[in-house]
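Figure-free illustration: sequence to structure, shown twice.
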Amino acid sequence: MPDRRWTVMLVPHGEGGSRSVSISVTVLKLLAGVATIVVATVLAAAVGVVSHTVDLSKASRVERENRVLSSQLTRLGDRVEALSDTLALISRRDEEVRLVAGLEPLDAQVRRAGIGGPAGDWPEREQLVSEGGETGRQALRVHLDLDALLRRATLISTSFREASESLASHVQRLSATPSIMPTTGFLTSNFSGLRYHPILHIGRPHEGIDITAPYGTPIIAPAGGRVVSVGWRAGFGLAVELDHGYGVRTIYAHMSRTAAAVGQSVRRGERLGFVGSTGLSTGPHLHYEVHVDGRAVDPLRYVMPSAIAD
């Protein structure tokens, strides 16, 4: 079958003769194929250029993000280091507080457990090292430091709570421990296992101290406690007795009048009564006794150089 042909007429607008070009269908198909290949090649090249440009833009953006993250990780690491120094200072203060609270210092191995490496499994660790690059390794260091800080903070918190509870107990006991003279005056008779009694004229134990003071001088509580007895007692005359807890009781005798009631809670420095000369007494004075676990002890052992404040 003869090859079909196409004839194209070229007619000029001005002078000159017309021309005709005859092209076979086979040639047209060949030209169309070549054109298609050229267009496809151009399009592929364009797509490649655009894709490469996008990849470069994405890589540039990722690089910028990594620089920002690295900078922030560096700043975060600096803050973690500053926090570590602060916790070290708090830890030293904790040791001092424990001593004041009457507690033993934390064992060195216990403190090291609060400072050492991370506890437990952390699957992301290997991924950060193998895939995270320098930024991942930096993030790993910050994570490890934060993990250590959290353990140290928990350890110090527990230690401070223990010390606080111990201090509270000490403060409560100190507030209930006699520490000052219950009145102003002159010490005229000491605590003694045997003393010649000025009225009975016999030798007998003197289970307290005598403080001579003008009639009506105020008598105050040398520590916090509860009033358990108010009234007349044989030999003591008008007297008040306090229970301070912890096995400590105090007695105030020969008062002219009282200023406390049974069941009343008093604090150190509150008024209990006034100096007098009731009972077996040769003149106005206060007879003051301290009993610990039912046994009389020298009250001067419970007079500190300066008052312990509540």
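We now fold a second protein in the same way, so the two outputs can be compared directly.
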Amino acid sequence: MEAVRVRITVNGDEYVRTVPTSMTLLQFVRDELNFTGTKEGCGKGECGACTVLLDGTAVNSCLVLAYQCTGRSVTTIEGLDREGELHPVQEAFIRHGAVQCGFCTPGMIMSAIALLASNPLPTQAEIREAISGNLCRCTGYKAIVESIDDAARQMAGWAVAQGADAAQG
């Protein structure tokens, strides 16, 4: 079995490991680093449960090899909280009851965050398109779409308020 040395930044911390060339990013974050919030669903890139951000882009971590991430930055669901506070998308999922069994939730949230980074105020159709690669068997997506829409509006309001504070300061 061939192995390779990787240097990957995960959730802001750099990790150096020697891993098999066949190890996926999903296996790396779960088995090597114990970030188990990233879930393994299908293992074929069809369900989105393993979605993480790779340099800010949502990817299915089951389809990316760990060695391909050398020198890159990965964010998992565990990397979202700031000093114990949930990300606004996480808070919105809770408020709207979008968390049922919770298996799809981390991947769904990561896809939502990638969307909002590139499109701060998406339409509900754009939200549905952005999460189309994430399967949920519990909610029917209504609460999930409402959560993302709510989080977008909250985050946009916060940004506007921050800009007003800066202008007055």
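Summary for the second example: The chain has two domains: 3-79, 88-164.
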